Amino acid sequence: MITGGSSGIGAATARRFVAEGAEVLITDINMEAADALAAELGDAVTTFRCDVKSEAEVKAAAEAAYARWGKVDVLVNNAGSELNRPYDETTEDEWDHVLNTDLKGPWLMCKHFVPPMVKAGSGSVINISSLNGLVGFPLSTAYGSAKGGLVVFTRDMAIELATTGVRINCVCPGVIETGMMERWTDRMPDKEAAQTMLKGVMPIGRMGTADEVAGSILFFASADSSLCQGAVLSVDGGFTAQ
């Protein structure tokens, strides 16, 4: 189960999971893109419209998933919304949109998808946070607050789930070359300068790829990470090592 699975890290994760033999349910609000990806990847992929900000839609997605498969082994909370704006120019609606998508959304998904996992005694939840959830950046109060909250949410949930057989962990990507990053540089006065700056953020001297992040998600989904509970993995080309 991958939220926001039609593009970027979500789509790369869907491709990796299908390659490993998984059946994948992609939820998104962009059904045109989701259905196009499903057509590309074949019968192993099912799509379902779900706005993670809406409890009614999340509940419907959970009911549909469990009705079809009877169980969900892996939940990837990937859907997100970014915002780059000074704190005093951020509107209440913008703040609510980012927090509701990036933090409330994963909580709602866990609320409706995890209890059956607990009942079954197994499962893996992977929350996709961000480098912004670990360190401060200008113009990122809403986004950073949501992603930082998601890191702590992961740790809190890990303690609650510790003896249930359900694992929950968190991946924090650095600067990744995705459509979301492209949209951010498009809004800058000098796009080329913005891209150069972003590459300079990563000590390895380049942006990461969505597939590289998907590999980390696959690790947390697999039995190879059986001892990981509440782990927060930085996939940031060395940024947080500085």
UniProtKB/TrEMBL annotation:
PROSITE patterns linked to this entry: ADH_SHORT
Oxidoreductase is among the record's keywords: yes
SUPFAM superfamilies given in the database record: NAD(P)-binding Rossmann-fold domains
Entry keyword annotation includes Lipid metabolism: no
Alphabetical UniProt keywords: Oxidoreductase
InterPro entries noted in UniProt: NAD(P)-bd_dom_sf, Sc_DH/Rdtase_CS, SDR_fam
GO molecular function, one term: oxidoreductase activity
Family as reported in the entry's similarity comment: Belongs to the short-chain dehydrogenases/reductases (SDR) family.
Protein name as it appears in the record: Bacilysin biosynthesis oxidoreductase BacC
UniProt source species: Luminiphilus syltensis NOR5-1B
